[in-house]
Amino acid sequence: MSQHPAGFRGNKAALPSKPCAACGLPMTWRKRWAKNWAEVKFCSEACRRKPAPRG
Prior knowledge:
Helices cover 9% and strands 11% of the residues. It has one helix spanning 45-49, and strands spanning 17-19, 26-28.
């Protein structure tokens, strides 16, 4: 059973992405995030440790 998002057929450009809450860089879906993609906010541990941006 595949855990890839619907429509994935080996083409990484078709994977969903969203911006990192800390640095703003786009994060592409990863298999290890399959169960909690909606809750993923940061692209890395370093970004997770950064203080929240003000504003």
